[in-house]
Structure prediction request, 556 residues.
Amino acid sequence: MRCRLALLLACTALPASAQLQLEAPPAIAGLLAPFLPEQAGEARLRSEAGEILATEGYFSPTLEFSRDDAGELRLRIDPGERTLIASVDLTVDGPVAAKTRDALIAGWRLPVGQPFRQADWNTAKQQLLGELLAVEHADARLVDSRAEIDSEARQAALQARYEAGPRYRFGALAISGLHRYTPALIDRYNRNVRPGEPYRADALQALTGVLQATPYFSSVQAELDTAAAEIDADGNAVAPVRLSVRERPGHRAGFGAGLSSNTGARVEANYNTPNLFNQAWEFDSGLRLEQKRQTTYADVLLPPDGGQRRHSLGVVYETSNIEKLETERHALGIQSVQQRGSVEQRLSLNWQRERRTPEGAERVTSRALVPNVMWTWRQLDNPLDPRRGVVVQLNVGGGAKAALSDQNFLRLHLRGNLYLPLGARDTLALRGELGRTFADARLRIPQDYLFRTGGTGSVRGYAYQSLGVREGEATVGGRYLAVASAEYTHWLTPDWGVAAFVDAGDAVDSLADARLAVGYGLGARWRSPAGPIGADLAYGQRERRLHLHFSLAIPF
Prediction:
């Protein structure tokens, strides 16, 4: 069909088969066009257009019908003035704290002066009811609501009355579905759903979320049993919490294969049981064979204690051949992890014995017993795919000859990521690292406590751990590290994007040798369920070579 432009009104096209020509302001035409029948009589069009306009607050529109020379029907619409909210009368009955009642009324989403829209009216009513249901008042309901429209005055008077119902308190947990574990295990993870505490919907959600994330349960459901509530001496309704769980299988084995631009192709196998010795201790073990590194490990992780600390111990045996440096490492350690608000704290004590053989240099054996503390602070809008936020991590550890180490040293490592949104889709990501190992010399310090860099996640454009100190023909770790990176990502679609980046960094044994290696390039990004996956083609300026890098870009 042909669309015509009226003198003061814009025209919005209907489907090609329609016989109706609609003339209305752009917003009104866009509202009506998808819903008006393609072919209908004047009476039906008048009725349906009036109903649709009324939902948007236009209760006195002018609709004029005419036909053009070809006999096609033309509808010209003047919506008139929009109806505005003139008054709001909200009532919340029941034992609601005065402060809570005042906050609910003050937060009403459709105040005086705003245009009346049926969708906004429905949303505002449900919003207030949802806030009542979320805290203490699990039986709250909307008793009555009314919107009185004065079409001549173009005013709307709104009334809504709610019944809050009793104030609920959590009662005891009634748990079903436990077979291998005891209620004491769930109590270790339960921080907020305690008998006597005010009912909060988010507390129940938090409990189900944290239990679902453990290795013990495959599904968790929790609800307040209001039918079994009893009134306490203060007039509160105390209701038990029905918690239904389904336990994960007692034994799991997995096999996999993959490819890393850092360490090459890999195959791996792992075995896991969440109930070692029937103590709810998680045992996780595996064997990973990569082209440049081979690792076997076993870890035992205990449930959290009363301070919400989770302790673990583990052993690892690893061999590698990276940048002509062969290493063989045995290590064992214990660790304690605790979340304190936005800060995660990890305390550990690790002992390792390392034998390294640089090509063209002498073999060296190093031993170290290292107490270490790591703090990680996260403030991200999305932990898997951030557009705004910051992550900062500080690592402090060291060894002493007086305590089973071959060398005295203190290692400091600081790194951070900053994410800044640019426009509706784009993101600027800044990354930096600084490290220093305080020691008289780097000899007889295991490589884990020195620094090498290069490759995916550090300085792209260079091979994995190729930036460091030359020893014979090999690259080994130095006592100083500096890395900086800037990356701009433009998302072409919700799932696919392109990135441009520049990285710079180096690892040296003396500041006099510092000379940053620069790499830059372009990459592709895909938003996978596990986080953005990247493929980058980077040019290393120092070596004048191109490198292809793959990465899963999840913040540390």
